[in-house]
Amino acid sequence: MALNNTIQFKRNLIFLKDIAKISLTAFGGPEMHIALFQKKFVEQRANLTTKELIELNSLCQILPGPSSTQTLIAIAFKMGGPGLAFLSLLIWVFPAAVLMSGFAILTSRIDIGIFKFIAPMAIAFVGFSALKMTKLISQTRLSYLLILISMVVSFVFHTPYLFPILLVFGAFINVNFGIRNFIPNNTPLLKIRWANLTLMLSILVFAALVGWATKNNFPSISEPIRLFENVYRMGSMVFGGGNVLYSMILTEFVEFKQKQYLTYQEFTTGVGLLQAVPGPTFTIATYSIGIAMKKMGYDIWGQLVGCGIGTFAVFLPGTLLIFFVYPIWGKIKAYPIVYRSLDGIIATSIGFLWSSVFLMAKGFLDKNSINSLNGTVSLLIFACTIIVLKYLKVPPIFIVLITVLIGFLIK
Asked: What is the pTM of this model?
């Protein structure tokens, strides 16, 4: 038994070291993350098979949250249980969270004029992602209709209350009118451990209640708690990865007049700088809450606390969801309704993403004249970014650095 424990410990240690290395080189978003997992954990280490990796990634695609991060958590859970999964999450997130925390502090204390061309670059990145995601969905009229509906509604009405409503609407429509054959499965799910799901929902309700109860009398306590609740709620209903999270943050923290924690410039700067950061794109929440805490009057230490809150809040619900779902995945995947609703949910989420593209473009055009030198340079940067993303294999970090350099040179 002691020998088995020693072997398992060494195996887990090697696995964690591999994650640490990947976390420093995982540029390019979820697609690149999965490719790195395939190379390291399937081809080099044989921790699992390609089929198992695809199946785990499929599981995470039908859950809200950061899909590539959840895939890594599921791999770790498979290898060593929840303890190894939690350690893996911490190591995976740490470099990106540290870098985005640094950006949140620096961009609020230096002349952000050098980032003035980050906005068109960021719009190009998000628009290119939206186009790629649109091509990957089921090519049906219903899917395109759901994209159009969620795009128009979320663009016209800048309110976070629409996100859960539209997601439920998309799932309902696709379950009832989608083209996949529907074969009901009435087999009951037995021996389900509800603790992690209950904890996930309880945290959301508790944070909302505490934030509301302390709003008037204890604002210094209420503000961080409400920011936690905001981001935790987003992390609980994001389908489609970090790009869709951009849309939620843009709507709730920039466009929603009751809050406006970030300016348009700060938001697009964060999205742009994120392209130069390895690891999970959900750390845009780290940056956003760090900036929000500065707006609320907190010092650097308060901002660092805010960055920690944003990181913890955005990754916690997806982690708890994996802990709940992974043990019963073999049973859940036998239910066709899961996959039928997924098509509608993903189409609706892609609509959110297209909405964020147009909202970002609108915000940029409202603040810049296309006839000016900066406007002309911005259009060129947008066009060049799209061309580079489509035809050249240039690491995103170089695109970001060149864009910042142009902003520094053109006053």
From this structure: 0.80
